[in-house]
Design goal:
Blueprint (H helix, E strand, L loop, with lengths): L2 H7 L7 E4 L4 H5 L13 H28 L4 E6 L11 H22 L13 E7 L16 H12 L5 H7 L3 E3 H6 L20 H16 L38
Parallel strand pairs: 1-2, 2-3, 3-4
Helix pairs in contact: 1-3, 3-4
């Protein structure tokens, strides 16, 4: 199915949520982990951006006019990114691809909010864009310790897009990077987000879910960031080593489905 056909299928339906989660870089990078970029095929870079930042741009570009035509009042475009958007992780292409996704949400939000047909002016559509950054995942190809499942990430998105979530919260989040661990562990009742009662792994009680969410939030603190500014913009920032960002051959164990 082409991007155009997907967009055409939304015409007149009033679709109000688009999640860009496709990413192609894992397949190409995993066999080459631990090598510098000049020793890898160019495809490891291309696939990190083509099925990722570029595909997210193309699908958003196709769907936004349909949202505007339907005058949706709670339009939301979510990019699924990674901590690699803040720091060097795995390899050059992986990090650059996720920085691009994060910036895509920011710049997209600027243009959506500056355009009368998409910023809610005089009854027009209201469309926002943001990035959601999960921790390491547990999927058919990935196996991070205490990783988040796609169901967990999906519930984070539904919590963001719920009718109860306040417009003020969404306006503040517009263009920003949010972390699933923060959404699930912080008290956001005033913003209409129910936290652990909604954002939890399957088969867990509210108490178990709360413990898991708090543990993930603590694990997030162990990383050296997210910085207020990225290293390339900080004159005092030291250069990390490749191994600091898991750019070692052993990191392929995180992706057993691709080995």
């Amino acid at each position: 199915m082409s991007i155009t056909s997907v967009a055409d299928a939304t015409a007149g339906v009033g679709i109000c949520l688009l999640v860009n989660s496709a990413y192609g870089g894992l397949t190409s990078m995993t066999p080459h982990l631990g090598k510098p970029f000049w020793e890898k095929p160019i495809s490891t870079y291309d696939e990190s951006l083509d099925i990722g930042a570029r595909s997210a741009f193309l699908l958003s570009r196709a769907v936004i006019p349909k949202m505007a035509e339907a005058k949706v009042k709670n339009g939301l475009i979510v990019q699924i990114s990674s901590y690699g958007g803040f720091m060097y992780v795995f390899e050059l292409g992986y990090s650059v691809g996720h920085v691009a996704l994060d910036r895509l949400s920011w710049d997209m939000a600027i243009e959506l909010n500056s355009t009368p047909s998409t910023n809610g002016t005089d009854g027009a559509a209201k469309i926002r864009s943001l990035t959601l950054s999960p921790a390491g995942g547990v999927t058919e190809v990935a196996a991070f310790p205490n990783g988040e499942t796609p169901i967990y990430v999906g519930r984070s998105i539904l919590a963001l897009h719920a009718d109860s979530t306040t417009p003020d919260f969404l306006d503040k989040a517009n263009g920003k990077v949010l972390f699933t661990a923060d959404l699930a562990s912080k008290t956001l009742a005033a913003d209409g987000i129910e936290g652990a009662t909604v954002i939890k792994e399957d088969g867990k009680t509210d108490t178990e879910a709360d413990e898991i969410n708090k543990a993930r939030a603590e694990a997030l603190k162990a990383f050296p960031g997210p910085p207020k500014i990225r290293g390339e913009n900080d004159p005092a920032a030291p250069l990390p080593q490749m191994a600091d960002g898991f750019a070692v051959a052993g990191a392929a164990d995180f992706f057993p489905g691709l080995k």
